[in-house]
Fold this sequence. Notes:
- Helix 4 (175-192) crosses helix 6 (208-216).
- The chain has helices spanning 32-44, 68-75, 102-115, 175-192, 199-206, 208-216; strands at residues 2-3, 12-13, 19-21, 49-52, 58-63, 85-88, 124-128, 142-147, 150-155, 167-173.
- It has two domains: 2-78, Sulfite Reductase Hemoprotein, domain 2 (Alpha-Beta Complex); 85-216, 2-Layer Sandwich (Sulfite Reductase Hemoprotein, domain 1).
- It is of the alpha+beta class.
- Helix content is 32%, strand content 20%.
- A hairpin with a 5-residue loop joins strand 4 (49-52) and strand 5 (58-63).
- It binds iron/sulfur cluster.
- The site of iron/sulfur cluster has 12 residues, from loops.
Amino acid sequence: MKTVHDTFGAASCRADGLCALRPAMPQGFMDAESLMRVAEVVRKYDLPGVRATGAQRLEIHGIPPELVDTVTQAVGSLDGKCPFMMTLCLGKGQCSRGLQDTRSMAAALENMLEAMTDISVRPKFGVSGCPRGCGQSWVRDIGLIGDAKGWTLLFGGAAGRKARPGEIIAKHLCDGDVLKYVKRTLDFFAGNAKKGERAAGFAERIGMEAVRQAAQNPEPE
Length: 221
Ligand code: SF4
């Protein structure tokens, strides 16, 4: 797939020669003003509409290549960078079964990831507020599952042709420890992954014990 812009989540061209643009939707949410702007762009340029992606985003669909820059400009600030794919469920406070707050965890992860400017891998995250795992946590590079005692951190999950459930790195983590464990895991992953290698293949090649050790053991000061 040809990427028109550098940022993950910008316009991509499809097999039919038309392009699609994915406006920024932090934590899978879009407010009324942003929805209106997307609707206006679709109507103004006579585009077919939007479709929902597997990553909980709305994609402006069927853009002729010669209109990509115009549509991107019209979408304006909504054409934000979403460098890390993050799927999350409703979580505590919105789902009656939720045991942990997925939206605040996703926001904290996004803030941390944005600060990691040197990171060379683009992991996919799944965040679920309880063990039912509706945030697709088991089939993401990095998964989080909430329970009454905190978060379980998973690594190495994958969906698709070679599906693989993630494996547990640690349980009962508080919010702050999640961020520390995820950062150490990503540093280890980025420092040792082959070009284009996803977490599932990395976990099988390197071994989960090495990933767990890296996640749990801070570098000496
Ligand atoms: S994983 Fe749990 S908290 Fe999240 S939507 Fe599913 S049932 Fe609700």
